[in-house]
Each structure stands twice: as C-alpha cells, then as structure tokens.
C-alpha cells in the first residue's frame, strides 16, 4: 500500500478518505478478504479524523466493497460483487486508477454507457412526436459549423438531455439525472468537434425521417473505439 498519500485540503477530508480507500481496493492494494488497516493508521494516512475514516468505511460498506464487523476488523470484499452505486466513485476516481482489473472495469463502464445511449435512442424513436423530432434537428442544426471543445461539450449534453426527454421513459430519465450529477461536467470531448456536430445532426435527421438511428450510432462508436 502507498504510505505517501498527500492529505486533502480542509473541507475535502471525507472525500479524500473515501476515494483513497476506494482506489486502494479497486487497484488491488487492499485485496479481497484482507482486513482494513486500523482507523488510527488510516486517519494518519489521509490526514483526517478517525470519525471521518469510519464514515468513509461505512459508505464503502453501503456499495458492497467492505464488510464491517462489530468488534473486529473490517474486511475488503471482491469489487466484482459491488452494486451499481459504485458507479459514482468509479467516475470520480477513474483517472487515478492504475491496475489492469480497474482498467477492464473502466472499459466495461464505457461499453455500458454506449448501451445506455442505445436505449435512449430507441425510446426516442418509439415515443417522440414529429414536432419534437423537428425541434431536435433545429437544435443541432443551429449550432455553429465550427465548434470549440466547450461548444461541442454543450452540444453533446444538450442532445442527450433532449433525447432523454422525448423518449418519455422515466427510468432512463432517472438514470440520466444520476449520470449528470455524478459526472458534474467532467467528461472531455473525444475527437473533432466538427465531426461531433455532424454525428448528432445525422442522428437527428434519422429520427425526423423515422429511420432507426441505432445502426448508425453503433457503426460510429465502433469505428471510434477501434
């Protein structure tokens, strides 16, 4: 385990302990079945109080990464058995994970995001009115032909928010609300912003023409991932 962890700034102590322990578990520095270090040691490592450490451990318990034993040492659980609430921590800590297992998990997360987008497009294809499809196309078409990275990010966010709304699936809408809260505009746009505009313009045109947008979406993301 890394003993040279820099304490977090005041006000972020709870996040430092929670995210630090999460990274150690996901990267295998704390292996499944292993006991967590004593609260005193963890408090020293992260520069926080023992109460803060205890709160972090219980949050990890809630997502299925730690088993808390009354009167005994808490034990690390297999990350593969954690539930979906681990997504938030995964998104927050993605750029600090280094192990092969964590890299595979991040690939799985990227694939899941693509599958989720397919669900959003399918729902929009089923439920959007002609007026909503026209409005979506206008929303993309009025974007400048030349976009910088910030403009491209705004276009992407606005497109998927609109797709989610016109799809009228409450479960997908709830999940989108979670993604927006978790990512907090931290995602970076991959590729050429101009190509991104063309990509969303094509999807909007297919929806307006009542063509299935999923084959085009899949072909595009598979090309990008190749």
UniProtKB/TrEMBL annotation:
Matching InterPro entries: Tscrpt_reg_HTH_GntR (IPR000524), WH-like_DNA-bd_sf (IPR036388), WH_DNA-bd_sf (IPR036390)
Name used for this protein in its record: HTH gntR-type domain-containing protein
UniProt keyword annotations, A-Z: DNA-binding, Transcription, Transcription regulation
Residues covered by the HTH gntR-type domain: 11-79
Pfam families: GntR
């Amino acid at each position: 385990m890394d003993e040279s962890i820099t304490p977090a700034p005041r006000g972020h102590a709870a996040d430092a302990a929670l995210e630090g322990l999460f990274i150690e578990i996901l990267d295998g520095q704390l292996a499944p079945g292993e006991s967590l270090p004593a609260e005193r040691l963890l408090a020293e490592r992260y520069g926080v109080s023992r109460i803060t450490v205890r709160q972090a451990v219980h949050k990890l318990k809630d997502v299925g990464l730690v088993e808390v034993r009354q009167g005994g040492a808490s034990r690390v659980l297999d990350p593969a058995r954690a539930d979906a609430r681990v997504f938030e921590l995964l998104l927050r800590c993605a750029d600090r994970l280094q192990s092969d297992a964590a890299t595979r998990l991040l690939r799985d997360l990227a694939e899941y995001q693509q599958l989720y987008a397919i669900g959003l497009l399918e729902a929009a294809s089923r439920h959007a009115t002609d007026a909503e499809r026209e409005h979506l196309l206008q929303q993309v078409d009025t974007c400048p032909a030349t976009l910088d990275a910030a403009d491209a990010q705004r276009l992407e966010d606005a497109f998927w928010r609109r797709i989610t709304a016109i799809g009228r699936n409450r479960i997908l809408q709830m999940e989108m609300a979670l993604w927006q809260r978790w990512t907090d505009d931290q995602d970076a746009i991959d590729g050429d912003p101009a190509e991104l505009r063309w990509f969303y313009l094509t999807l909007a045109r297919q929806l307006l023409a009542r063509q299935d947008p999923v084959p085009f979406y899949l072909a595009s993301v598979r090309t990008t991932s190749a």
